[in-house]
Write a structure and sequence with these properties.
This protein is an alpha+beta fold and 195 residues long. It has two helices and 15 strands. Strands 1, 2, 3, 4, 5, 6, 7, 8, 9, 10, 11, 12 and 15 form a 13-stranded antiparallel beta sheet that branches.
């Protein structure tokens, strides 16, 4: 192969890759619907169990024509987490996250995730990076749910230990009330679009 032929070959390959990638991404228009999604962080303390509901969820998702999620980012502002206990509990949680320096909790998909669809049931295993409190760890968890028309509702739960992210569990009343290290992130994420 001559230098000229090699250059033409490289150019053809590059253009083919660009067009096929663009077509694959554009073929599947999916979007996370924040108003139909919710996340609750549940934990324990020496006083009682507690929940913090997330008031603001941002998400982006992309899939290819092989029914695989190839990109998923879910981003939650730490200060959008609210508890039934009110501002004291909330403030302690924001301090644990060091919310001024680390204002978001983020999950980013790192591996393509095949979506299994059986009738109206949907299953997917998500592998990616969970970032919070200034640290990032790889996590893997399953999500399952229902498909209604072009709306996917996926539910799941992710167990997390705050200490694994370098965070100290919140305390109150001069340390006499202590939160447990383990929390569970329960989610319902609604995605609209054709897969």
């Amino acid at each position: 192969m001559t230098k000229s032929q090699f250059s033409k070959y490289c150019m053809v390959m590059l253009v083919s890759i660009l067009f096929s990638t663009t077509a694959t991404l554009q073929a599947q228009g999916l979007k996370v619907v924040p108003t139909k999604s919710n996340i609750v962080i549940s934990g324990t303390s020496t006083l009682h169990a507690w929940d913090m509901k997330v008031a603001q969820i941002n998400g982006e998702v992309a899939a290819n024509t092989n029914k695989q999620l190839i990109s998923l980012v879910v981003k939650v502002p730490v200060k959008s987490m609210k508890s039934a206990e009110g501002s004291i509990m909330d403030g302690k949680a924001y301090d644990a996250f060091d919310a001024k320096k680390n204002p978001f909790i983020t999950f980013t998909l790192t591996e393509a995730a095949p979506v299994k669809i059986t009738d109206k049931d949907v299953e997917v295993t998500l592998v990616g990076n969970l970032s919070m409190g200034g640290a990032t760890k790889k996590v893997s968890f399953k999500a399952a749910g229902k498909l209604t028309g072009n709306v996917f509702e996926l539910k799941g739960a992710v167990p997390v230990k705050m200490s694994e992210y370098g965070m100290k569990a919140p305390t109150a009343v001069f340390g006499t009330i202590k939160c447990g290290d383990a929390v569970t992130v329960k989610f319902v994420i609604t995605v609209e679009g054709n897969l």
